[in-house]
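Ticket #487: bound-state structure for glutamine.
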Amino acid sequence: MNTLHQATIHELHDRLKKREITSREITESVFERIDQVEEKVRAFVTQTRETAIKQSIAADQRIQRGEISLLTGIPIAIKDLLCTKGIRTTCSSKILDNFIPPYDATVIKKLKEEDAVLIGKTNLDEFAMGSSTENSCFGVTRNPWDLGRVPGGSSGGSAACVSADECIAALGSDTGGSIRQPAAFCGIVGLKPTYGAVSRYGLVAFASSLDQIGPMTKDVEDCALLFNIISGYDPSDSTSIPLDRTDYRKSLVADVRGITIGIPREYFVEGIDPQVENSVQANIRLLEKLGAVCKEVSLPHTEYAVSVYYLIAPAEASSNLARYDGVKYGYRCKDSENLREMYRITRKQGFGAEVKRRIMLGTYALSAGYYDAYYKKASQVRTLIGKDFEEAFKECHVLITPTTPTPAFQIGEKVNDPLGMYLSDIFTIPVNLAGLPGISLPGGFNKDGLPIGIQIIGKHFEEERLLQVAYTLEKNTDHHQKKPNLL
Ligand code: GLN
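RESOLUTION: The complex was predicted; output attached.
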């Protein structure tokens, strides 16, 4: 059988360039793989086979003309909350299940300009609210390493399909951990860029002061490459930052000599799975052996991060989701007597339980009389969390932490325990609150063969440094080469 679907972007790019293979062959290999395993994994909401084959033919023609850029002809999967012109974009919510955007998100436009092949839209927790992909109106995606477990969330479909080789790479979004946590659970690489590094134009908004789009890939090199393409200033997103373009492939140097790595004391506390802790410690020792200086640092306000996030994110969500009223987009209820009823019933029927919970939490936190006690207080503590990082970064270049306190949990294990679910993002949330870049990469496996993720956090717009440390770890380990057995 053709095994092109197993390869990375950079491997395929080299072979396409030498004209040893065609994009059509890669794309067909990916769809064969989907036919083989998708029934078990259920990573996709929508597959776009016909247009994908057409795009692969167009990419091959371009390559024939001697024009090839980094993503030309490479099959990519897209989290289903990024707007794709003419292709249904559901956010895994009933309220948008018939929504076909009339425009492309900026990141999609960039992929198309490169002649990438878009193979489909991947499953997520409804409106990206969740950590397990169980909050999807299309049903749960399964973790390719153990089909009884969750792939993480909310970008669980993207993580699972990269891990199962149902695509070459994918895009996800991260508001409190939604790229890094599923990347950790599925044994792949996921980058949450600095807030403002990637345009959010065309990303369906969850919590606008936290959301970022990022790459989910099979290795660090692919991550740098895909980040190269999607990052950059965009006048259509007022939070996008105009910076000189960097070629992030420059940071692919397997050397950490001269780099100081901070280990935040507050991230190694009771409750963290001992196998996760051991694996992070092993990676820290490896970095030391390779010449990095590792030292303990403190982020004293860490314990407030989850509470702060669950005030700020729902507050912003309650405002962002006000637009789904049955008038402008998507689902509208059938029988209602008047406009007010129509709003009420549409939203009652269209949103799932977790989304409703967030809207209520957020509306409450913003209500007159409670605003100061909740939203304003949370915003103040958010500033303190940001300052903790600033202080820590006076002593080190990057931080290293576990991505999650435990490996992937069982499907159903936390559905009736929202607080338990919220805590699975305890190490990723502070990074979003501070707007910093964070990457998760494979750091080992537990005794049941489940992947464990390592998180590296950098200073604002210092993705280069973060990629360099991640690349060094990857070059000195083989965790990323292991594949789940799905057949
Ligand atoms: N799991 C977190 C939440 O439920 C983060 C989600 C995300 O990053 N989109 O809000």
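RESOLUTION NOTES: The domain at 4-245+437-478 is CATH 3.90.1300.10 (Amidase signature (AS) enzymes).
TICKET STATUS: resolved
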